[in-house]
Amino acid sequence: MGKTAGLTTVQKMTIDTLKKEGKTQKVIAKEVGCSQSSVSKHINREAKGRKRCGRKECTSKRDKRALERIVKQNRFKNVGEIHKEWTVAGVSASRSTTHRRMQDMGFSCRIPRVKPLLNKRQRQKRLAWAQDKKDWTAAEWSKVMFSDESKFCISFGNQGPRVWRKTGEAQNPRCLKSSVKFPQSVMVWGAMSSAAVGPLCFLRSRVNAAVYQEVLEHFMLPATDQLYGGDDFIFQHDLAPAHSAKSTSTWFKDHGIPLLDWPANSPDLNPIENLWGIVKRKMRDAKPNNAEELKATIKATWALITPEECNRLVDSMPRRIAAAIQAKGAATKY
């Protein structure tokens, strides 16, 4: 007997009741059937509001505030660097204690989201564009063909999954990730509507106006037949030099294809960016050994995109517009 951990819930409730009645600890212990020290510890713990026993924390509130300032000064430092700075500030704590205190504050180590940097003029134009499109319905957005290019690498760098391992397993082949100094990559052009995705085009050279117009001729036009049949549609692309070239604008006019005006540096407003992310996540378990295998993997994964996924992404456009307005033209979470 004696340890409060051995007290049952009923015993604790009885102790509390008898204490309120003014009984002494000796009498309470006799009635409850435990030692007087157990009664004393339970009463003292309740009086102090303590829920558990254990060693007192080695860091003060002041130390914690200092740690939070260090973390917020540069959120990209690792635990070792933060621990070193905290120690220099006069705090005596281990690296694991530093990590625990950061977790207690709500900090978690995550892969950072990527958002475009926007200057004041770009934010103003994005805001004006969003306000102009705020009344567009999902049905109107379904008439837009969204397009974009994306780069796929055999090695995805730090964006890939992490590994769990024990001490001494660092060189275990099952714990290693293959890497090359200059990973092979391919550039892909693709398009989507709310109904489905269009054919992919693997770009062999740097995209200039002439190359882009060939892509439009041989891949975009067939995609319009596939996605819209004979119905009207609006084509979307960003303001990349090849897209905004005078000869490219002439090409669209000659083919009678209307263009959706688009603000600069705004990938967060384009749902196809999210589609590229979906494709890359689905490819995480694939291990292509060369560019040709990489292309085959991309094609196979692209073919698995469902109409429901496309529809959900295009249906998000009104929310993207609202988010851009709320952010006053700044980059959004999308």
Structural class computed from helices and strand pairing = alpha+beta
Distance separating the two termini: 59 Å
Summarize model confidence as the mean pLDDT. 87
Task: Calculate Rg over CA atoms.
Answer: 31 Å
In short:
InterPro entries: Homeodomain-like_sf, RNaseH_sf, Tc1-like_DDE_dom, Transpos_IS630-like, Transposase_5, Transposase_Tc1-like, WH-like_DNA-bd_sf. The chain has 334 residues and is α+β, with helices and mostly antiparallel strands. The chain contains 15 helices and four strands.
Keywords:
334 residues, alpha+beta, four-stranded mixed beta sheet, 15 helices, elongated
Please characterize this protein's 3D structure.
The longest helix has 20 residues, at 209-228. A four-stranded mixed sheet has the order 3-2-1-4. The protein is built from 15 helices and four strands. The chain has 334 residues and is α+β, with helices and mostly antiparallel strands. Residues 144-295 form the Tc1-like transposase DDE domain. Residues 64-132 form the Transposase Tc1-like domain. This is Transposase. One of its GO terms (biological process) is DNA transposition.
Task: Break the fold down into its secondary structure elements and pairings.
Blueprint: H1 9-20, H2 25-32, H3 36-48, H4 61-73, H5 79-88, H6 95-104, H7 120-133, H8 138-141, E1 144-153, E2 185-192, E3 201-203, H9 209-228, E4 234-236, H10 241-244, H11 246-255, H12 271-282, H13 291-303, H14 307-315, H15 317-326
Parallel strand pairs: 1-4
Antiparallel strand pairs: 1-2, 2-3
Helix pairs in contact: 1-2, 2-3, 7-15, 12-14
